[in-house]
Amino acid sequence: MLAPDRLRALVEAHLEELALAPELGGLAESMRYALVGGKRIRAVLCLATGEAAGAEPEELLPAAAALELVHAFSLVHDDLPALDDDPVRRGRPSTHVEFGEAVAVIAGDALLAEAFRLALTYPTTAVARQLAGATLGMIGGQYLDITGRREDEAQLHRLKTGCLFEAAVSCALSVAGVPEREQGPWRAFGTELGPLFQIVDDILDGDGYVETHGLDGARRLADRAAERAQERLGEIEADTDVLSEIVGGLAARSA
Amino acid sequence: MLAPDRLRALVEAHLEELALAPELGGLAESMRYALVGGKRIRAVLCLATGEAAGAEPEELLPAAAALELVHAFSLVHDDLPALDDDPVRRGRPSTHVEFGEAVAVIAGDALLAEAFRLALTYPTTAVARQLAGATLGMIGGQYLDITGRREDEAQLHRLKTGCLFEAAVSCALSVAGVPEREQGPWRAFGTELGPLFQIVDDILDGDGYVETHGLDGARRLADRAAERAQERLGEIEADTDVLSEIVGGLAARSA
Questions:
Q1: Are A77 and A22 a contacting pair, CB within 8 Å?
Q2: What is the DSSP string of B66-131?
Q3: Is B109 buried (19+), middle (13-18) or exposed (0-12) by CB count in 10 A?
Q4: Fewer Cβ within 10 Å of end Cβ, chain A: N or C?
């Protein structure tokens, strides 16, 4: 079992060497720019879940990279002037600031299409189907976000953040060949991660859950979410130590 | 063998009844708006090719619809103010004019993700893989278009228009189960359709090939492209009468 930092290094190396479709030509530069600097939480989670379920990291890397590409696509489009109008991302100018809005729109499109190309390198449709479902859920969440229909905070975050975390787990299970009937406990674990990530994100940014529940309230919600995730891990019959370390890291992260 | 108009009616009915992911919520309205009014050339071509190769139209409809969704996605994003800034599409306000720019960006994203979900309803990855390759080629063509790197007009159109026409043929062959070694003549036919479509498009719009070759020159190019497509059909061992009618329609179209 590789530690989270080792898994992250594998992801970084894989993303750096990723061959993009040659037809994309000069667009590849903006796509690689958009991929730099992420924490790779979804990809690491995918690798750790898959390894715990019996797969080799190498088999899992295309799925893990696909998750990061979908995440990067969503950030590039979210940051556009018409949406969040965010000029900074991961400490650098957003893709649209660096390359212009037109290139950012189609760079995001290309990241999404490349994600599917990666997910389709597996012999079955399973990984790609889960990626498609998660992407649609995430976009549904973006829609709730931009239209201000945020009455149900939990539903918004379940879609916008949770779907891709759940896919990180379910894609790993597909690659590892875990039968559907045995996936329940793993998936139950996956559903706890989106809320945990989001609440901690809001604590770090001082918005969202902090606005609705206060700082102490949000901290309690985060701790409770981390506890639930750890409890779910206890119900899985496998060595989940690395996953447990990831949950601890998500709860305690400071960036 | 169903005539092109009958195939078009099947496509229309299928698109109208298409179940979109429930998580998309209110975004579905803008997606359906963007799908209205197309000529369905790519979908009809997919159905006609597949039927000629031995498949039932019903089996082909998800692939045909997926092609239309990818086409619609590309139009929605192409029309955005940052790209072509086109306020009118298919005789109505463009999606971003009707629903706002933010919704148009993510409606395009969702159309692309839904296209993959449809392509992934098949038991193998073949249709989705061809859709991913074609989408990436198309985006590469958009990049050449928006960055003004149009030195090679034929390459620009091969990517921006041709890839999706070629995918209409190759996806149909996958659904029909035509073995790879027998696909050559079909695929050769598919590569003639993008140029034919594009040249006629430019004749109708008075731009592109008309600017570089004059109206008569463009007309001759279109006729020659249609001849080549018919010649390719003659090399296919199947009843290609409907495909021949489609080629004739593409060459003679006035809208």
A1: no
A2: HHHHHHHHHHHHHTSTTTT--SEETTEE-HHHHH-HHHHHHHHHHHHHHHHHHHTTSSSSHHHHHH
A3: buried
A4: C
Which residues are paired to A89 by β-bridges?
A92
From the list A60, A9, A53, A37, the residue with the least C-alpha distance to A243 is A53
Q: How many CB atoms lie within 10 A of CB B10?
A: 20
* Of A195, A83, A211, A69, residue with least CA distance to A143: A83
Burial A62-83 (b: 16+ CB within 10 A, else e): bbbbbbbbbbbbbbbbbbbbbb
B26:A149 CB<8 A: yes
Q: Between chains, do A77 and B106 touch, taking CB under 8 Å as contact?
A: yes
Cα–Cα distance measured from residue B108 to residue A110, given in angstroms and rounded to the nearest whole number = 12
Looking at beta carbons, which residues of chain B come within 8 Å of A23? 136-137, 139-141, 159, 163
pTM tops 0.95: yes
Locate the DSSP E strands across chain B.
Answer: 88-89, 92-93
Span B176-212, pLDDT tens digits: 999 999 999 999 999 999 999 999 999 999 998 999 8
Domain range annotation of chain B: 4-252
- A109 with B114: Cβ contact below 8 A: no
Interface ipTM = 0.96
Query: CA separation (Å) from A220 to A56, B17, B131?
Result: 36, 46, 46
- What is the predicted pLDDT for the residue at B149? 67
Q: Average pLDDT of each block of 10 consecutive residues along chain A (255 residues)?
A: 94 97 96 96 98 97 98 98 96 97 98 98 98 98 85 83 97 97 97 94 92 94 96 96 97 87
